[in-house]
Automatic annotation (TrEMBL):
InterPro entries the record matches: Amidohydro-rel (IPR006680), DHOdimr (IPR004721), Dihydroorotase_CS (IPR002195), Metal_Hydrolase (IPR032466)
Residues that bind Zn(2+) 2: K102, H140, H178
Its EC number(s): 3.5.2.3
GO cellular component: cytosol
GO molecular function: dihydroorotase activity; zinc ion binding
Name the UniProt record assigns to this protein: Dihydroorotase
Name of the gene this protein is made from: pyrC
GO biological process: 'de novo' pyrimidine nucleobase biosynthetic process; 'de novo' UMP biosynthetic process
CDD domains linked: DHOase
Domain Amidohydrolase-related as annotated: residue spans: 11-317
Role noted for this protein: Catalyzes the reversible cyclization of carbamoyl aspartate to dihydroorotate.
Amino acid sequence: MQKITITKPDDWHVHLRDDFILEGVVKDSLKNFSRILVMPNLVNPIKNTQDAINYKTRIINAIKKLKIHNYFEPLMSIYLTDNTSEKDIELAFRSGVIFGVKLYPFRSTTNSFDGVTDLFGKCSLVLYKMEELGIPLLIHGEVFNKTVDIFDRELIFIENIAIPLKEKFPKLKIVLEHISTKDAVEYVKSAKDPIAATITPQHLFYNRNIIFNHGLNPHFYCLPILKREKHRLALIEAATINNTKFFIGTDSAPHSKENKENESGCAGCYSACYAVEMYATIFDRVGCIDKLEQFISFNGPNFYGLPYNSTKINLIKQSHIIPKKLNRNIEIVPLGAGELLDWKLVE
Ligand SMILES: [Zn+2]
């Protein structure tokens, strides 16, 4: 197959940041995606419905400056804290603006110092309310504990938090975000609905060797960190078997080159600009290009109870190289910089 036309996909997990980089980053996402679900972990996190409405306005203003017409309004999320109130969850539900509440365990990733310290103790009432209203809990599924190996954080989270959470709140809609292990794949497959998982391009493309290939490569440092090859293969299998529980979520997260190549380098990979081409490339390399549309365009809307997009995108089989750097008012090294992609998005 040399050309495919598929339903325009959505990105169910993206970081846009704020201020002067917003415009360039939003432009990359809207080139690839129709709907985007925006994560709330700004430097000043989006902790309630009003914060989310204000942030959404800033994003729409950035889109307007780009003179893009007929865009989908961004889908917003709020950041769960120990102090989130049931009242705000009600407000979030009624606003029509909020599509998920994000759980960052305390200190688990970028800007997570406001994260939850005691999910079952401090957030139970809020979780009951979310379960009742059908608001999804979007989970960064890692424990942060000095005694837990960084490569085991996801597995320990599943054992200690995800399984009891599912038992206590069986009707709560859960998305395990950016899963990175075979263990997470198996858990999500076996757990009773409603549960789903997003998978990033970096976790499909790379195993952990790439971080240490000919020296330390900070541009492949993300959280959850890349894992062994067997985990990558399990993720590819999950993405390509038409299992409706697995869908796209790029976790595209812009950081400046300077902040990545730093003595305390940031976690996160920027993929918004080439994400669809990356997914197409990996699906094709494993002989499953025919499964791409289900994963990037249908499974997400099915989970969130939204219609499929009516617009289409075209991809042709044509090699091209991911640029070494991008200018988005900051210099960004994109995921896979300098590498070959096999598929290209065309008009
Ligand atoms: Zn993320």
